[in-house]
Amino acid sequence: MFENLTNKLEGIFNKLKRAPSLNEVQVEEGLKEIRQALLSADVALPVVKKFIEDIKPKAIGQEIIRSTSPGQMLVKIVYDKLVELLGSKSQEINLKAVPPASILLVGLQGSGKTTTAVKLAKNLEKNFNKKILLVSLDIYRPAAQEQLKVLSDKNNLSVLPIVKDQLPIDIAKRANNAAKLSGVDIIIFDTAGRTQIDLNMMTEVKNIKAEAKPVETILVADSLTGQIAVNLASEFDKAVNLTSIILTRVDGDGRGGAALSMKQTTGKPIKFIGVGEKIEDFEVFHPDRLANRILGMGDVVSLVEKASQDLDEEKIKSAEENLKKGKFTFEDYLMQLRQMKKMGGMQGVLSLLPGVGKAKEQMKNANVDEKLLSENEAIILSMTKKERENPEIISGSRRKRISLGSGTDVQSINRLLKQFKIMSKMMKKMSKGKVPKGQLPDELINNIK
Question: Is 267 helix (H, G, I), strand (E, B) or coil?
Answer without folding.
Answer: coil
